[in-house]
Amino acid sequence: MTSGVKNRTRQAIIxxxxxxxxxxxxxxxxxxxxxxxxxxxxxxxxFGERADLLSAVASEGGERLGRAATLADLDRGTGxxxxxxxxxxxxxxxxxxxxxxxxxxxxxWESQDEQYLIGVIERGHADGSIDPALPSDWVLTLLWSQLxxxxxxxxxxxxxxxxxxxxxxxxxxxxxxxxxxx
Length: 182
Known about the structure:
The protein has helices spanning 4-23, 29-35, 40-46, 50-72, 79-91, 94-101, 111-127, 136-156, 162-177. It has 182 residues and is mainly α. The termini are far apart.
């Protein structure tokens, strides 16, 4: 059985890796160890090679994405409401998603996850909350691009509160997804 201290140390290393690799995919293991406030030897005790650490990052990423989807309760409400709840949950995963999109996050995003989101979008098409003229893959691309824009906006404007940026994000997506008024 692994002790609480070992679990916390391992988690600190994974968290540091997610944060640093998102900003600099070429960062060294030494930089990750320093950010985790452990020695390089300690990092290697937990992760013998960079590939081992990246595998742990991918696993952690999958867990975080799954928790976000669970918290968003994607089966409740209209398709658009579900996507907006998911955006709110994903917003706090900025470093992880940046890492994933850069290709450094491994296989934390499964094809079934994408298929599930497409199902939510199709539900929105059917219930009238998402413009049916917008293809599902377009809506997914819009979701990811707007999340990225929100993270960048907040990073560039230190005075912008999380609440304000989330409001901008959800307002933009709501207006983009809404079917035209007849």
